[in-house]
Amino acid sequence: MSEDTDNVAVEENVDKHLPKDLNVEENRNIIETLRGKVREKLKNAKINQGEKSSTQLLIDNKVYQWSKAEVPLDEGLSFFILSGEEDSAIGQSAEQNFAEGQDEDFVEEVIFPDLLEVKAADYEDYEEQIKKQQANIFVPSSSPVINQLKLPEDMMPRILEEEGFYIQKKPEIYKKTCNKMENRLLKLEEGKCWFEESGEIMSLPSPIRRSWNFRLNISKEPLNPALKTMYRK
Asked: Where would one find the signal peptide in this protein (predicted)?
């Protein structure tokens, strides 16, 4: 009974893959030849399976539980029919990988030496680095500035306290910080406008210049009545 069922399964599977135009006798001959090849493959597989070590057999028996019955012929036949296509696909992929590997080796051996240059790192002296930094970055000095540089030409600094003006006491500033600020302002195009007649940086309202401590209301629009002040006794 098992052989009959196997024959029927093989015939059904072959009918799917073979063209319908062939004669019945030719189909039977093809089925018999394929059946014989499948049986040979199954025998070879069993022989190779028996040559494995005992430990390998235990692992395989746990993972793959082989039944006493033979593998169904339809599965073996489909494997035999499709194995040729799989082998061709594997061969094409192997050839492609080999060609890609040759291309990579060619790039590394021929092209990379022309594009890349391997040499020692360039060393710059510390003094040269400082010169480059000074050319690109302005670092103001802390040395004092002459009054003639801070005032317009042919103008002497005025001491307003001696002229009788009241001068408020300025907040104490570290002298080197003040000198750095003066040197920085003189580098600007309109930096001299930040200095008073005495040659010092403007920090408080000057008594000889008109200054406003509040904002003038120049608009002529009437005020909102809600903003008017109401005086009551």
From this structure: none
* Count of CB atoms situated within 10 Å of the CB of 3: 9
| pLDDT (tens digit per residue) in 5-48 | 444 444 444 454 444 444 667 767 777 776 776 677 666 666 76
Q: How far apart are CA 205 and CA 226, in angstroms?
A: 35
Phi/psi of residue 202, each to 5°?
A: -65, 120
Q: Which of 32, 40, 44 is nearest to 6 (CA)?
A: 32
Whole-number Å distance between alpha carbons of 14 and 70: 19
Q: What pTM was computed for the model?
A: 0.35
Q: Which residues pair with residue 195 across a beta bridge?
A: 201
Confidence band, pLDDT 50/70/90 cuts, at residue 58: low
Whether the CB-CB separation of 218 and 198 falls below 8 Å is answered with no
Dihedral sign of CA atoms 145, 149, 152, 153 in order: positive
How far apart, in Å, are the Cα atoms of 190 and each of 30, 185, 187? 103, 8, 9
The arithmetic mean of pLDDT across residues 52-81, rounded, is: 50
Per-domain residue ranges of the chain: 2-115, 129-194
List b or e across 57-81, with b for residues whose CB sees 16 or more CB atoms inside 10 angstroms. eeeeeeeeeeeeeebebbebbbebb
Tell me, what DSSP letter sits at residue 110?
Answer: I
